[in-house]
Amino acid sequence: MVVDRINAGLRAVPVWLLYILLSLPAPWLVWLGATGGLGVEPIKALEHELGQIALQLLIAGLAVTPLRRFVGLNLMRFRRAIGVMAFTYVALHLLVWLVLDVQIVAQIWADIVKRPCITIGMLGFVLLIPLAVTSNNWSVRRLGPVAWRRLHRLAYGAAFLGALHFLMLSRGFQIEPLIYLGLVVGLLLVRLPALAGSARPAVSRR
Amino acid sequence: MAHRWTNDLTRADATPEHVWLNRRQILGAGVAALALGATPARADALEPNSWDEITSYNNFYEFGTDKGDPKKYAGALTTAPWSIEIDGMVDRPGTYSIEDILAQMTIEERIYRFRCVEAWSMVIPWNGFELADLLDMVGVQESAKYVAFETLYRPEEMPGQRTRFIEWPYVEGLRLDEALHPLTIMATGIYGKPMPNQNGAPIRLVVPWKYGFKSIKSIVKITLTDVEPPTSWNRLQPSEYGFYSNVNPKVNHPRWSQATERRIGGGLLSPRIPTLMFNGYEDEVASMYAGMDLTKFY
Predict the structure, then answer these.
(1) CA B36 to CA A33: how far, in whole Å?
(2) Does residue A200 lie within any of the structural domains?
């Protein structure tokens, strides 16, 4: 099977390589922004690019389990790296918004409280904090696998809020944020017991 | 009657072409420090934006919703021949070719602040004539109270029109006194060159005290009417975009503050600057809205 060969190949890929690969876009985007490569309004462009990568990584993280369950592709080893880097990009996106975009402290708080699209995005970030903090083996042992897994279901909420944040920010109804939201909702729906139960058990692929 | 209004920004405020061309070459060489270092001067001096800035960062949803889409796709638009149908409550309705119109108009340079509803801004050296002169030409009847405008609908040349994102064609409108105000111009060029397609070629409206989306591009139809005409963004999201849409730092957009803006061209460290009432044209236009509750008529 092709999937088995891919799985075998992936076992040879060290996880640290993924951390490095996923880190590269951040300095590259800042460099582009500083040298005119992001156009004449680099602040919004940088903010948007970082947020978009964050959302893509959140979706990738949500895709790991369904890919194993329905396709037999095993990316479990990489899930932590995907999640930690998703958090990193959300944090960078937030940092650019705070420091380069809004700049004015009084307005930052006003935006968070008064503007639903900002409130939603901020809530998504807050949900990710405990996940980032517990993304290590010690925390998994400490919490026990059941409690740890339950806690990390917050990723479902964070991804949904992130996609909703994107949709709400857009002027009018645009297609791109709807695609992201659709992907998130789809990846959450396949987790419903009725759908998940009909799949082949993951062990049969091993 | 041209020259009703005099710029407080003059030709001396505009960057001579060879200077901004040089600046582009420097940026092209990738000297980031220079780009960032240009920020403070830009903010104080009200220096008009460069040709590159004005023509590469556009909202013209007929070509796509991304700021770079208009520059990318507007090349396909054919702007000759071009005519404007003027109808409704006018003495001489008809379809006027752009050549016939321009033969009767005096083109002036107007260096205006341009404030987008999305809280970014530019300073743009437009070339154009006063809308009042065009309306004089066709003879506005007593009964007219509003002016309605319509953008070209040509999906084969305007890819954005193939999706029903907005109900095409794009429409806008002004109250008659706003339309006749000497600040209101029909622009046909920038920096002395013909209007680039992505900026609304060959002819567009410019109403400098209103958010940019009021300044409708690539106009093919003007109608004088006695009822407030529908406007595209108001139709799409009435709670966010009103008919008037005057620049007003005290009336926030529901999703973001309008108190400050970012002038395009300041790089990654571009500061926010305060937004001015009526975009800095308060002395000229505030009297038209005397007694109106601007939080209600936003």
Answers:
(1) 10
(2) no
Mean pLDDT of A81-103: 96
Chain A: give the shortest CA distance to residue B47, in Å.
Answer: 15
Minimal C-alpha gap between A46 and chain B (Å): 9
A204, part of any domain: no
Name chain B contacts of A110, Cβ cutoff 8 Å.
257
pTM across the whole model: 0.83
A140 touches chain B (CB under 8 A): no
Question: ipTM, 2 decimals?
Answer: 0.79
Confirm whether A147 is domain-assigned. yes
pLDDT value of residue A164: 97
In a domain, A129, yes or no: yes
> Are B255 and A110 in contact (CB < 8 Å)?
no
Specify the CATH number for the domain of residue B67: 3.90.420.10
Q: What residues of B are in contact with residue A35 (Cβ under 8 Å)? A: 27, 30, 32, 35
Q: Confirm whether B294 is domain-assigned.
A: no
Write the CB contacts of B98 (distance below 8 Å, at least 6 apart in sequence). B81, B82, B83, B84, B202, B203
Compute the CA torsion angle B267, B273, B277, B280 (nearest 10 deg). Answer: -60
Q: Taking 60 as the threshold, does the pLDDT of residue B30 lie above it?
A: no
CA A178 to chain centre: 16
Burial group, residue B182, by CB count within 10 angstroms (0-12, 13-18, 19+): middle
| Paired sense of beta strands B204-206 and B185-190, if any | antiparallel
Domain of residue B266 covers 11-289
Query: If you compute the radius of gyration of chain A from its CA atoms, what whole number of angstroms results?
Result: 18
Nearest residue, CB atoms, B264 vs list A36, A41, A171: A41
Chain mean position to CA B266: 21
Domain-located, residue B24: yes
Number of domains in chain A: 1
Does any domain span residue B127? Answer: yes
| Residue B274 touches chain A, beta carbons under 8 Å | no
Q: Taking CB atoms and an 8 Å cutoff, what residues of chain A touch B256? A: 111, 115
B254 falls in which pLDDT band (50, 70, 90)? Answer: confident
Contact B272 A34 (CB under 8 A): no
Asked, for residue B298, whether it belongs to a domain, the answer is no
| Domain coverage including residue A73 | 2-193
Measured between CA atoms, how close is B165 to chain A, in angstroms? 7
